[in-house]
């Protein structure tokens, strides 16, 4: 392993791979990833990537839909950039060989999802993320990007308030080591694993956000956690709940109570295609009313041949669990899915710490505001990773001061609080929160976080990261005394203009 590279990227999902493939010709580019290359959230994205291609669609429409769902907190400039630069980059993926579904082999077969006024979801059947990951890994190889697997990045190295590299656990030597870089990029994905039930794979423990927070970066809008309304009830694959894509409702799927009564018309004039926060709250309300552990999602009225062709993964996976979606409804529950907040960055992906960039789900560009419009996250990662690759041309080469002293390993091994915190977040920080519950959660999380010493933690590093991220979510939720978008708190059920701003937190150094 080199001691120093030009561009160091942490994470091999859409954000990390896009950035790396675009800068590899400018200097030595290394991706470190904590499991195997394709162990990413990206790999599991089903629905697709939103971009304006439809003949009745326009940038104006996509911007309007994004702002509407974001409920006043979207950064308008970032939204405009994402929407306008998106189609060219989606087309670029297609030109690389990404096999997006097309009608008659020519134009993209555009799907429709909740909150979108038009059909604009470019997809590869229902395994879009897998296909994007595949093509970007191929491209990275062609461009000469080195990807090193099973390397766990533990903390950032900050010198004179700049990020100059990372501490990591080196797979080869089985030691904690340092790696210096001109530019360090966090592309570590989401934090669904902070919750008991999540659609996110096991890598999604919010490591990048926790590391950036500990290093003194600004972290924004952590209270906005998106719960996907329709994950299959009580069935998990490697700790991850199986998601039934929003596109199923886009193609006519209907949510019903356990007794088979449709209910979404009572909650929104958009019915089953209402934005995710509305649908998730409606599902929880109906579950409480009927004392049921799940609601039903029914697409069995569509032709079996259509379902099998349009949703092959969903059809086959459910069938393996004994649910034939062509003949019967699927039991579903809302599940932690996506984090709108993260490391605060500008429209070039730069964080508040010089030489540290953050891209993809671990970043907060502000495009999602208080709620993410479906299929805007792959797009966000693609657009801002590309912009960051353009920006780094102006980053000058860095000197490492001779008196640099490596931080010590923590004196005590941190405890493993993973399960306790997941249960805490499930109980107090779900779709519907209360101030009392959040206070209880804060009390517990403060006790947990006091158990971790300063210094580099290897054993239970994820437990420490989960603790930091849970603390950020709870504290940010307590600061926002209103309900807006994904943040619903019973004591303050309405929006309040006073809170028409980002929640920004920063650790005093
Ligand atoms: C089931 C599911 C379906 C989804 N469907 C859609 C969809 O249809 N459309 C859409 O737009 N979005 C969708 N999303 C969201 C979208 O997939 C993610 O937001 C996006 O893929 C995030 O990409 P990323 O590159 O930021 O992170 P990821 O793809 O999650 O990659 C993170 C990388 O960081 C690495 N990493 C993390 N911590 C460390 C560490 N400490 N050291 C080293 N490496 C580390 C991981 O190993 C991984 O390689 C979906 C998400 C899920 C889970």
From TrEMBL:
Known cofactor(s): FAD
- Per the annotation, which location comes first and is thus the protein's main one? cytoplasm
EC identifiers of the protein: 1.4.3.16
Which reactions are catalysed by this chain? L-aspartate + O2 = iminosuccinate + H2O2
Q: Which InterPro entries match?
A: FAD-dep_OxRdtase_2_FAD-bd, FAD/NAD-bd_sf, Fum_R/Succ_DH_flav-like_C_sf, Fum_Rdtase/Succ_DH_flav-like_C, NadB, Succ_DH/fumarate_Rdtase_cat_sf
The Gene Ontology CC terms held by the record are: cytoplasm
Active site per UniProt: 276
* NCBIfam families in the cross-refs: nadB
Which family does the entry's similarity section mention? Answer: Belongs to the FAD-dependent oxidoreductase 2 family. NadB subfamily.
- The name this protein goes by in its record: L-aspartate oxidase
């Amino acid at each position: 392993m080199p001691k120093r590279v030009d561009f160091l990227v942490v994470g091999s999902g859409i954000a990390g791979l896009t950035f790396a493939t675009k800068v590899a010709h400018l200097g030595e580019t290394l991706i470190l990833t904590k499991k195997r290359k394709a162990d990413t959230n990206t790999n599991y994205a089903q629905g697709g990537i939103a971009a304006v291609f439809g003949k009745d669609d326009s940038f104006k429409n996509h911007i309007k839909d994004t702002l509407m769902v974001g409920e006043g907190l979207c950064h308008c400039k970032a939204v405009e950039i994402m929407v306008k630069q998106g189609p060219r980059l989606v087309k670029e993926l297609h030109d690389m060989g990404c096999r997006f579904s097309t009608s008659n082999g020519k134009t993209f077969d555009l799907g429709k999802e909740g909150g979108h006024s038009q059909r604009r979801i470019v997809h590869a059947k229902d395994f879009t993320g897998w296909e994007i990951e595949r093509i970007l890994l191929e491209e990275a190889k062609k461009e000469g990007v080195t990807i090193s697997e099973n390397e766990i990045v533990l903390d950032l190295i900050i010198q004179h308030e700049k990020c100059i590299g990372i501490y990591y656990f080196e797979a080869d030597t089985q030691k904690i080591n340092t790696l210096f870089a001109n530019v360090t990029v966090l592309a570590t994905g989401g934090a669904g694993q902070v919750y008991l039930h999540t659609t996110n794979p096991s890598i999604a423990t919010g490591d990048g956000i926790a590391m950036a927070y500990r290093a003194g970066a600004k972290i924004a809008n952590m209270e906005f956690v998106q719960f996907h309304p329709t994950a299959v009830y009580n069935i998990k694959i490697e700790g991850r709940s199986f998601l039934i894509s929003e596109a199923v409702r886009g193609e006519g799927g209907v949510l019903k109570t356990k007794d088979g009564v449709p209910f979404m018309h009572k909650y929104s004039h958009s019915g089953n295609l209402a934005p995710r926060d509305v649908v998730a709250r409606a599902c929880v309300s109906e579950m409480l009313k009927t004392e049921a552990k799940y609601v039903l999602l029914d697409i069995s009225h569509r032709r079996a041949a259509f379902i099998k062709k349009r949703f092959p993964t969903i059809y086959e996976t459910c069938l393996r669990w004994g649910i034939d979606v062509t003949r019967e409804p699927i039991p579903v529950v809302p599940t932690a899915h996506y984090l709108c907040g993260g490391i605060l960055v500008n429209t070039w992906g730069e964080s508040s710490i010089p030489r540290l960039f953050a891209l993809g789900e671990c970043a907060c560009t502000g495009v999602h505001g208080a709620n993410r419009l479906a299929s805007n996250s792959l797009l966000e990662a693609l657009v801002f990773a590309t912009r960051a690759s353009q920006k780094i041309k102006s980053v000058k080469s860095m000197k490492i001061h001779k008196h640099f002293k490596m931080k010590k390993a923590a004196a005590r091994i941190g405890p493993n609080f993973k399960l306790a915190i997941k249960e805490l977040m499930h109980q107090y920080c779900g779709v519907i929160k209360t101030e009392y519950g959040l206070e209880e959660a804060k009390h517990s999380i403060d006790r947990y976080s006091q158990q971790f010493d300063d210094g580099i933690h290897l054993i239970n590093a994820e437990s420490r990261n989960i603790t930091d991220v849970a603390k950020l979510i709870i504290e940010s939720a307590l600061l926002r005394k209103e309900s807006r978008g994904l943040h619903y708190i019973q004591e303050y059920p309405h929006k309040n203009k006073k809170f028409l701003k980002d929640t920004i937190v920063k650790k005093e150094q």
